[in-house]
Amino acid sequence: MTDDWLTQYRESIDNIDAALVFMLAERFKITKAVGRHKAEHGLPPADPGREQRQIERLRRLAHEAHLDPEFSEKFLRFIIDEVIHHHERIRDES
What we know:
The protein is mainly alpha-helical. Helix 1 runs parallel beside helix 3. The longest helix has 37 residues, at 4-40. The radius of gyration is 17 Å and the shape is elongated. The mean pLDDT is 96. It has a domain at 47-94: Chorismate mutase (Chorismate Mutase Domain, subunit A). The chain has helices at residues 4-40, 48-64, 69-93. It is built from three helices and no strands. The chain is 84% helix and 0% strand.
């Protein structure tokens, strides 16, 4: 016997997970273009000021959305670190 409510919740979670994957893919496509631009113009792979502003902004948004700001910061920091790694690799390949 299946629990219809549980099935519906899981289907919604699956849809959200799929949307997250596609949104991350789009984000990384754009950040790779930023990395190429930075490499072409001799700009550093990291921008600590922007990173801090983004973290502060996402912490505020998380608070407004009733999401743990600590979690949102960890999540964004993970993404930022990966983007910087990509930018460094692009720079080193140029």
